[in-house]
Write a structure and sequence with these properties.
Largest sheet: 5 strands, parallel
Structural class: alpha/beta
Organism: Streptomyces sanglieri
EC number: 2.3.1.-
CATH topology of the largest domain: Malonyl-Coenzyme A Acyl Carrier Protein, domain 2
Strand order of the largest sheet: 7-2-1-8-9
Strand content: 5-15%
Pfam family, one: Acyl_transf_1
Number of strands: 9
CATH class of the largest domain: Alpha Beta
Protein name: Acyltransferase domain-containing protein
Number of domains: 2
Low-confidence stretches: none
InterPro entries: Ac_transferase_dom_sf, Acyl_transferase_dom, Acyl_Trfase/lysoPLipase, Malonyl_transacylase_ACP-bd, PKS_NRPS_Biosynth_Enz
Shape: globular
Helix content: 40-55%
Order of helices and strands: EHHHEHHEHEEHEHEHHHEHHEH
CATH architecture of the largest domain: 3-Layer(aba) Sandwich
Radius of gyration: 19 Å
Length: 328
């Protein structure tokens, strides 16, 4: 029987949580090594980042991009390395937002220390660029045509009825009123910026210049792009703008994930590893026929966010690794 392919799902802005994956620090050796190493790369900022990460009362601080972006990168990268050490490299990497940069490092497109340094400098320069916010809405983009006429834009497609809107604070306030009047479920995402919208074009251009100083190479592991919903090509991988521009473009996460799940007729199934602390990355997949009726399955790498930083993290990680070793 052919082995099921393993897909590692890596979270982005909005999925950050205080103490996410902290229960693995000091317990899982490879995770601990890479967390400590990346905190060192960040220098004095790394010490502050570690303090915020480990503080159970840091929910507000962790939402700021200057904290959330490098922390999501660091935790996601350390988790990916831990999975590789414990059970072998995943077959496919699928990252949401900054998670796509994590995927690029895990696939050896970028050196992680070099990319972390570039990203840290980039988020420090965000300042007021693209200030605003993001709303997760339980509706399709087509159902939000009225809200999109207010100036909000689709920032992400996370599921069949999971759309993220981005815009200025004033625009989102108007959108919120419209959605509430229509009894549409919504949730504010912690960001402080209108990521994945045209407002971020200047920041994306600056980041592209930073990435242009690095030495990217072709991916050694398949990366499913959330720009194209197709595997990243060797030519795309070495283009700095391909990675930087995702900051101002919508995240097509669900189309990318769906294209993997739709391949079940040619595939013995997928093992989806959800690396998000809120277990949000696999929500849409659980409703797909490949998971509902098999042969694909979903496995969280971390405890639910309300138990984050406890022994439950280690238990969830161990259970996922056990599935990989069983081959089932």
């Amino acid at each position: 029987m052919t082995r099921r392919r393993v897909v590692l799902l890596l979270p982005g802005q909005g999925a950050q949580r205080a103490r996410m994956a902290a229960g693995l620090h000091g317990v899982q050796p490879e995770f601990t090594r890479w967390m400590d190493e990346m905190f060192t790369v960040f220098g004095a900022d790394g010490d502050k980042l570690r303090d915020v990460w480990l503080d159970p009362g840091s929910a507000g601080a962790v939402d700021e991009a200057v904290v959330a972006q490098p922390l999501l990168f660091t935790v996601g990268h350390a988790l990916g390395r831990a999975v590789r050490s414990a059970a072998g490299a995943p077959d496919v990497l699928l990252g949401h937002s900054v998670g796509e940069l994590v995927a690029a490092c895990l696939a050896d497109v970028f050196d992680p220390a070099e990319l972390a340094t570039a990203m840290a400098g980039h988020v420090r320069r965000l300042d007021d660029t693209g200030r605003g916010g993001m709303l997760a809405v339980a509706a399709t983009a087509e159902e939000l045509s009225a809200e999109l006429r207010t100036g909000a834009v689709v920032a992400a497609e996370n599921g069949p009825r999971q759309t993220v809107l981005a815009g200025s604070d004033s625009v989102l306030a108007a959108v919120r009123g419209q959605l509430e009047s229509r009894d549409i479920t919504l949730r504010t995402l912690g960001s402080g910026h209108a990521f994945h919208s045209p407002a971020m074009v200047p920041a994306a251009r600056r980041f592209g210049q930073d990435l242009g100083r690095l030495r990217p190479g072709p991916p050694r592991v398949t990366i499913m792009s959330t720009r194209t919903a197709r595997p990243v090509s060797a030519e795309q991988a070495v283009d700095p703008a391909f990675w930087a521009d995702q900051m101002s473009l919508p995240v097509r996460y669900w189309p990318a994930l769906r294209s993997l799940l739709d391949s079940e007729g040619l595939d013995p199934g997928l093992v989806l590893l959800d690396a998000s602390a809120d277990r949000s990355l696999a929500v849409a997949a659980r409703g797909h026929r490949a998971v509902l009726r098999g042969p694909s399955s979903v496995h969280p790498l971390l405890a639910r966010s309300d138990r984050a930083g406890t022994a439950a993290d280690a238990e969830a990680f161990a259970a996922a690794v056990a599935v990989l070793h069983s081959g089932t």
